[in-house]
């Protein structure tokens, strides 16, 4: 939990025209019903007891009694009503929140799309405006609403998520809290009517809330938060941070056996649940023959099939190119093919493997023997 002294309050010495940007804390989970809103309210109630000025900007209780009870005693900023298709629809009153100037505002369901005709299209845009006004925000988000994960979520669940927001919201957040339960616990909550109305339970269990879907979504949420923690570690202590995810770099060449190398690297990345990168370095003064070009295209296609990232660079120094990619993508494992070179070549030029070992002793090298040089 963030203590009150860590929250961004406006300094009395700061010009009111240029307030400090508010801090944003996001409570994220794998699916509806894990307890994001309840956890947000729980922390807000504690901060209120400590003397912080906390208000509710928008709360979606979905009729859940425990959530309703947890919100008692917190001031609510009245919602604004918009007329659309002859219906009165409530939305968060962003301008009223900014005028009220609390120290902290709670905003549920960050990915929500506002009523057509609203000043801003998306709720996250309202939140950005509130943050720019120097007010801290607590908000909630389900992992499937991140734009960058849209295709993967569709592949996992078969469902196209319509309400999405840019990944930059999570990246820019001051703090990200994972609210986590097991898939079995979430399904039990669903059966008990704690998430949806009883008439929707069976359909939900057969679709989005299938156990295999929840397992995959939970892993996505865990990885996303781990990425966030790792990125913060790199920024705060770039020399001493510890990588959370394995990142496997496969270095290929025009040698046809590079395909075998690539497959081996993909298996290593899969076993470690890490990310796969494939690097090809071409010499600036050497042109690829048609068979060589087709071979590299095949490697690129295979990389995509393995959900990896193909990187093509030009340079005379292969070790320098590998080093550059390693630093950019924070590589932890390298897969290389050790070719048979003459003793004179090793004497005058040195082995790529030996040079990498000397330069990057902290990185694990996997040397796969090949037949040709």
Automatic annotation (TrEMBL):
Q: Name one GO cellular component term.
A: plasma membrane
Q: Which residues form the Signal transduction histidine kinase osmosensitive K+ channel sensor N-terminal domain?
A: 22-229
Which leading EC class covers this enzyme?
transferase
**Keyword Cell inner membrane applies:** no
Which Gene3D superfamilies is this protein grouped with? HUPs, P-loop containing nucleotide triphosphate hydrolases
Task: Identify the taxonomic lineage of the organism of origin.
Answer: Bacteria, Bacillati, Cyanobacteriota, Cyanophyceae, Gloeomargaritales
Coiled-coil features, chain-numbered ranges: none
Picking any one GO molecular function of the record gives: phosphorelay sensor kinase activity
Can you say what this protein is called? Answer: Potassium-transporting ATPase D chain
Q: Does the keyword Kinase apply?
A: yes
Species per Swiss-Prot/TrEMBL record: Gloeomargarita lithophora Alchichica-D10
For this protein, the Enzyme Commission number is 2.7.13.3
Please provide the record's keywords in A-Z order.
Answer: Kinase, Transferase, Two-component regulatory system
Enumerate the spans annotated as UspA domain.
246-359
Annotated gene? kdpD
- Alphabetized InterPro entries for the sequence: Histidine_kinase_KdpD (IPR052023), P-loop_NTPase (IPR027417), Rossmann-like_a/b/a_fold (IPR014729), Sig_transdc_His_kinase_KdpD_N (IPR003852), UspA (IPR006016)
